[in-house]
């Protein structure tokens, strides 16, 4: 047995960094992170709860992710998730239209029928019913591709939306490599339509961040944000402001990932001005953009920057806002996972556990099917003071 198998994840990072003769600064540069971020990871101050981050570190260290996690670690529930991702990968790999393969037996849907399919997929995703979305996506992509081939003018927007929801789902399932394929298709299909390009860029930013390319993400989404931004904010439509503001939020989160706190704050402040004009309770282009959504992004940025105290204080206020209950279940539960990270960083596993149980109540799939949710559950459940209900959930899901 390699002695690194007995170490916590952060210590394994330090061990393999030493084996590869890399300084903390060199590793940080290759990861697009700060030296202090690497130091906190190695000392266990900052936990690694994103599968994409673990994969990126493993790639830089030239080891398998399983080695970084420990050779005996076999996360339960992975099989179904992997199978779902592979089904979507297969659906993205058919190229039926380009290869002029014989049409399937199913007739081409009318445009309004496809619009209903796309809306149903998005609604199912926003309710965090990820296994159901996995079932919907292959046929949705096939239908959208056929209609676009028949009538590009009518089919462009639904095709972009089909790719967008697919990319969002794959990010949730911890498959940024396949999500990249979907979002790349979305951006190509959107070319020439200013709003569709901006909408696709929202998922592009998410995919790039999850792939460990935060600096690129910031640059790309900022360009998309300022392309859709109205010349004068007062004259912008709610839809334009929602897209622009959401892209500014994505850029801010990318800045936070690389430790650029000043840029993150400035961009979120800019987005907040737009959110104040949009108001609460809207969902233009499936962004859920509004004042509360921006406040939740501010909390996520604080967590990424290591400011657990600010994150916790803002979280307690944010969940009392009227806008909180108007956000989709997926959005609220995802935020709660970020908040749980903040409490865990602050050595408060009791409240971290309480928040995770609330996330499981709102959207069970965020804990049961999303790798980031399962990982934070495993971390909290190991704490001696973790709530009993949470340790039972971890045992049921066989995580940890």
Automatic annotation (TrEMBL):
One family name in Pfam for this protein: HTH_31
Superkingdom in the source lineage: Bacteria
Ranges where the HTH cro/C1-type domain occurs: 13-68
InterPro entries named among the record's database cross-references: Cro/C1-type_HTH, Lambda_DNA-bd_dom_sf
Molecular function, one GO term: DNA binding
Name of protein: Transcriptional regulator, contains XRE-family HTH domain
